[in-house]
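Hi R.,

Quick one: here's the Alanine--glyoxylate aminotransferase family protein sequence you asked about.
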Amino acid sequence: MTTSFFPPQRTLMGPGPSDVSPRVLGALSRPTIGHLDPLFVQLMDEIKGLLQYAFQTNNELTLPISAPGSAGMEACFVNLVSPGDTVIVCQNGVFGGRMKENVERCGARAVMVEDAWGEPVSLDKVAAAFADHPEANTLAFVHAETSTGVRSDAEALCALARDNNALSIVDTVTSLAGIELKVDDWGADAVYSGTQKCLSCIPGISPVTFSQRAVERIQSREQKVQSWFLDMQLVMGYWGGSAKRAYHHTAPVNDLYALHESLVMLQEEGLENAFVRHQRNHHALVAGLEAMGLSMAVAAEHRLPQLNAVNIPDGVDDANVRSALLNDFNLEIGAGLGGLAGKTWRIGLMGFASSEHNVLGCLTALEAVLTREGASINASAALPAAQAHFSGQ
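And here's the predicted structure, written out as tokens:
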């Protein structure tokens, strides 16, 4: 007979999902009410306001898509990109490639701006692409590339889009609540994220926000949006600001309880404090890794504090190390993707998982496993280096 599933207590320090706060898990267990219940509608309004705070925007069209970040991505593309459009797509990792797929499935042309994995998006290449393709009406890029741990200059890229009369579509799945993100100040037009990274919520919801310029394009479309479920004009009948909500789909009520709680926690901490916490823990982790003799895969000025790409030492078996960390220490870190598979580890310090306790625990476990694997490292050096950073020495 099949029995109930009880997972072990893992420490999730990979590229996502991240550790979920007990407060958020507790919110999930609250009584389910109807998705049109007046009390739930009130909660929806609170979630919208809290998301506006997280995104730093006053956009009216701000809401959580009832599906993971990939659906948020698709919502931005299917609503803004029409057949025959030209879209400049930046790729410096896995997720730029997914943007290209979305453009092509919308019947549009993707003009690729490619940079090496581990490098940020080149502003000069984007400017040249606009010069070569003045018909382009959209620029799509990833702010924080989860596959490489690289941050690109979202503010400058959004400015390039505006200067060329194009809208910007911005992937902030890993950046939201982890590093600075100012949707209104930067003039970003369509921005999507996920709940399972720096928000420390459960997977399965995608916060999105659309500027007024983006809304005007949606409203002026000549063709129907190819996805009924993700058509923003339909979804806003449910998520709009009026007291009367039109039924569109059955919202994941308990999941939205969890999102609300995670956003309340973010508001309590304050965005700036959350950014400082991520940076502090990142620098301590890097200090410990480098003291151990490991090297980082991304230049310091472009690193994401919440997603740390580490070069795997020569002669060390990637899968053996990750398996030992998981089985012996209940610690999950991520493998490299694409051309970086077997060459890097991705260590997440996202949201609730970004803590001094996790930094020190990860360094201890990694040192123990690498020593057992016979790696050439500086044993017993990592913890003192990280602790010195935490104590301000």
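The two ends are 57 Å apart (CA to CA).

Cheers,
M.
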